[in-house]
Each structure stands twice: as structure tokens, then as C-alpha cells.
């Protein structure tokens, strides 16, 4: 067995135990959920029993995680620099572990349009939090006022727009692939009202 394999083996065993403890479960409780004996689970956690793929799959399910997450190793590219769009006051960071997901930070200075015909609707979901100032979220004919540290989550098939109220505000949002695409103009520039 290579050194890296031994390191991964040890890491997986530590993760199993850490996830069990984080759930507040005893060895007996996780063993029951995973349909293993308590002694088998104890030997797996302590490195006295070989890790079998079928047991790892069962343990991952019982721990409400995936096999990929249970065995993933750290990468060197932990730090991500933002992509900056100064013309629209945007910073974007891709979420490496979830293709298509993006974190976005934007400074808004204009109020949102009140007319639903000027709002966007597209497949996807959005989540955003107000970092500073006061934002106004328009969802169809409904108006929501969001103060600093308040968040909103909504399906983007509803016509929507976000803007500032009484001065600049900054928001941070998480966009899935469909929501991000829905906020891009034909020419590839970001749509300033809701992006």
C-alpha cells in the first residue's frame, strides 16, 4: 500500500467518526442505521478492519453524505480570486465543488423597476443577503424591503428585480447555473438590475 493510500484510509476513518459524533450518534446508533454490527463499526473507525467499498457506500448513506464527499482529498486550489466586472459593480466566485454555482457580490445604487415588464424571469433559484444598506426585491407585483443581514430565496420563474433604497447597498448572492445565465444580456454583459 502506498503512503497516499494509507493517508486516504486514515482520513476516511476520521471522517466517519467525525460525522457520527457531529450527528450526536453513538457507535450503536450508526451501526444500526448502516446495518453493521457495533464491533464492526468500531473496528472500521479504529483502523482494525479493512474498508470495503460496499460498507463505505452504506456508511455514507447512513451519515447523509456521499461517497465522493467521504473520500475526497484536499486540493491545492483552496483560495479563489474573484472575477471583477467594474462596470456593473460585480465580483463573482465560482463554487468549485458544485459546477454551475456562483457566489456574487454587487453594489447597487439604483432602485428596481416597478414595472413587471422590465423584470427578468428564467429557470433557476437565487439566494441573496444584504451586506450593507437597504435593498428592495421586486417579485412580480410584490415588494420586499431587505435590511442589512436579511436574506431572501426565491424561484426565478417569478419576474424579479433588485435595487437599492435611499442610497447604495451591497448584496451577496448564490446563483445556480440557470439563474446566472438568466441574468446575462445577449451581448454577454451582466444585467445590472438583478445580477
Automatic annotation (TrEMBL):
SUPFAM superfamilies given in the database record: lambda repressor-like DNA-binding domains, RmlC-like cupins
Annotated HTH cro/C1-type domain residues: 16-70
Gene3D superfamilies (UniProt xref): Jelly Rolls (2.60.120.10), lambda repressor-like DNA-binding domains (1.10.260.40)
Keyword Chaperone: no
Signal peptide coordinates: none
Pfam families: Cupin_2 (PF07883), HTH_3 (PF01381)
Keyword DNA-binding: yes
Cellular component annotations (GO), alphabetically ordered: cytosol
GO molecular function per UniProt: DNA binding; DNA-binding transcription factor activity
Keywords, in A-Z order: DNA-binding
Protein name: Transcriptional regulator with XRE-family HTH domain
Origin species: Thermocatellispora tengchongensis
Taxonomy of the source species: Bacteria, Bacillati, Actinomycetota, Actinomycetes, Streptosporangiales
Amino acid at each position: 500500500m502506498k503512503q497516499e493510500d494509507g493517508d486516504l484510509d486514515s482520513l476516511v476513518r476520521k471522517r466517519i467518526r467525525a460525522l457520527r459524533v457531529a450527528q450526536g450518534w453513538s457507535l450503536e446508533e450508526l451501526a444500526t442505521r448502516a446495518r453493521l454490527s457495533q464491533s464492526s463499526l468500531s473496528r472500521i473507525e479504529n483502523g482494525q478492519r479493512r474498508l470495503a467499498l460496499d460498507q463505505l457506500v452504506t456508511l455514507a448513506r447512513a451519515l447523509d453524505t456521499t461517497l465522493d464527499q467521504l473520500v475526497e482529498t484536499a486540493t491545492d486550489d483552496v483560495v479563489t480570486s474573484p472575477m471583477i466586472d467594474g462596470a456593473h459593480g460585480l465580483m463573482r466566485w465560482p463554487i468549485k465543488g458544485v459546477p454551475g454555482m456562483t457566489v456574487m457580490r454587487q453594489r447597487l445604487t439604483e432602485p428596481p423597476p416597478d414595472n413587471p415588464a422590465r423584470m427578468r424571469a428564467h429557470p433557476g433559484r437565487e439566494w441573496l443577503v444584504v451586506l450593507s444598506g437597504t435593498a428592495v426585491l421586486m417579485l412580480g407585483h410584490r415588494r420586499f424591503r431587505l435590511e442589512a443581514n436579511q436574506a431572501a430565496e426565491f424561484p426565478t420563474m417569478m419576474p424579479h428585480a433588485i435595487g437599492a433604497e435611499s442610497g447604495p447597498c451591497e448584496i451577496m448572492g448564490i446563483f445556480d447555473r440557470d439563474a446566472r445565465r438568466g441574468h446575462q444580456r445577449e451581448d454577454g454583459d451582466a444585467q445590472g438590475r438583478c445580477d
